[in-house]
Amino acid sequence: MINFEEFLNPISLDDFHLSDQRQQRLGDLVHFYSETGQFPSLENIDLAIIGVEESRAAQNNSGCERAPQEIRKQLYQLFPQQSKIHIADLGNIKQGFELPDTYCALTIVLTNLINDNIVPIIIGGSQDLTFANYMAYEELNQIINIVNVDSRFDIGETPNDDDNHSFLSKIIMHQPNFLFNLTNIGYQTYFVDPQAVSLMKNLFFDAYRLGAVNNNLEEIEPMVRNADIMSIDISAVRMSDAPGCADATPNGFYGEDLCAIARYAGISDKLSSFGIYEVNPDLDHRDQTCFLAAEVIWYFIDGFYNRKGDSFENENQFIKFIVNSECFEDDVIFYKSKRSDRWWMEINCSKEMREKFPRQYLVPCSYKDYDVACKNEVPERWYQVYQKLI
Fold first, then answer.
1. Residue 11: helix, strand or coil by DSSP?
2. Alpha helices of the chain — where are they, by DSSP H?
3. What is the pLDDT of residues 297-351, one digit of tens each?
4. For residues 351 and 382, what is the distance between their CA atoms, to the nearest angstrom?
5. CB burial string 137-147: b at 16+ within 10 A, e below
6. CA nearest 241: which of 282, 295, 187, 183?
7. Bigger pLDDT: 125 or 314?
8. Cα(218)–Cα(260) distance, rounded to whole angstroms?
9. Which residues contact 16 (CB under 8 A, 6 or more apart)?
10. CA 105 to mean position of chain CA atoms
11. Distance CA 124, CA 278 (A)
């Protein structure tokens, strides 16, 4: 176990209005790192909140480094739905002399937390910090999936280390590479180069337009359930709901939609790190964006404490469906959880590929995918993963 105090600064509790008498609000139940030398015990901790006051890579959103404390002010006034929660706020990552130093410190902290089955909640700062989050899984030698909630994405060009808009390229091009799948949710067509969309398809990654997602938000759940990392750029939300970001625009998700997506992330048994970025208090109106970010985190926490524990180690938890279709060389096998009613489909691949990608050949899906297969059609989700595993 590392000495976390080498990488983290304690936070002041003066702004949180905590009460020792009424153990009801979220802030009254969290274990804080608020004094040097008094780092909280991580025994039995489920979730760890970490602030990163870093914006040196924010192209035009300077000020987002102030978000962690401002979001905390709103978060710790909210009432949890469970009284038995085990959450620690570990303070803020110490800012490095250079930006890569901050990345390194964040990676070390996240690596140790994830390895101990503690899910980190990262409050940025700029979204390029997702690269440091990804690097933690490289340290753990774990092949992963990322869900990025953003109104735009830039891939295909040489990444700029000082650019919070090109971190996805940096992840994709990094070697050795531990990225199996990337899903971008909520992009707006006029913000994205068509060549970038084509490249996503050629790499068998997923990109879903805002309009397509808004028409059927429930279909987002299997995409989120397939992820290890969720990274949220608050500019994915329309300006009327989240004005506190330099990249905010008239269109985007409604605030309640982003909260629903965060809850999907929380209830996913697979997802093991969560981050929200680009909130800029300097541009905020009546703390509306900070309040929304706090509610997003609240929904993630609520989802986490409602996880169903679906595990394929116990086959009795699932109902197995076998689809014999003319579209497939072999039968397609679907599984439905008895606990949660959620669906998965199995990709028929070699034993070697199953051993190399033990967490990827069982793909989260929905009843709609099962229905499509029964109609002698190939579910798009199945085909995307199949192309990577054959």
1. coil
2. 26-29, 67-75, 99-115, 129-139, 167-173, 194-202, 210-215, 220-225, 255-267, 288-304, 351-356, 367-374, 380-389
3. 999 999 999 999 998 888 889 999 999 877 777 788 999 999 999 999 999 888 8
4. 18
5. bbeeeebbbbb
6. 295
7. 125
8. 9
9. 27, 72, 73, 76, 77
10. 19
11. 7
pLDDT digits (tens, 9 = 90+) for 260-296: 999 999 999 999 999 999 999 999 999 999 999 999 9
| Homologous superfamily of 4-304 | Ureohydrolase domain (3.40.800.10)
Q: Which residue has the tokens 């989700």?
A: 381
- Cis check: omega of the bond before 176, within 30 degrees of 0: yes
- CA 180 – CA 336 distance, rounded (Å): 24
- Tell how many helices (H) and how many strands (E) occur in the chain: 13, 14
Q: Which residues, 6+ apart, have CB-to-CB distance to 297 below 8 Å?
A: 49, 71, 75, 121, 123, 262, 276
Cα–Cα dist 142/179, whole Å? 9
Contact between 309 and 155 (Cβ < 8 Å): no
Question: Residue ranges of the domains in the chain?
Answer: 4-304, 315-389
Q: What is the pTM of this model?
A: 0.95
Per the structure block, which two tokens stand in for 224?
């989120």
**Number of other residues whose CB lies within 10 A of the CB of residue 121:** 21
Q: What is the pLDDT of residues 225-269, one digit of tens each?
A: 999 999 999 999 999 999 999 999 999 999 999 999 999 999 999
Please give the helix or strand (H or E) that residue 279 lies within, else none. none
Residue in this structure with the two tokens 């199953």, named with its chain if needed: 354
* End-to-end CA separation in angstroms for the chain: 39
Residue 366's identity, in one-letter code, is S
Q: Are 320 and 334 in contact (CB under 8 A)?
A: yes
Whether a cis peptide bond, with omega within 30° of 0, leads into 91 is no
User: Given this model, what pLDDT does residue 349 score?
Assistant: 85
Neighbour-count burial of 312, counting CB atoms closer than 10 A to its CB (0-12 exposed, 13-18 middle, 19+ buried)? middle
Q: Give CA–CA dist 379/219, Å, rounded.
A: 13
Query: Distance between CA atoms of 239 and 369, rounded to whole angstroms?
Result: 34
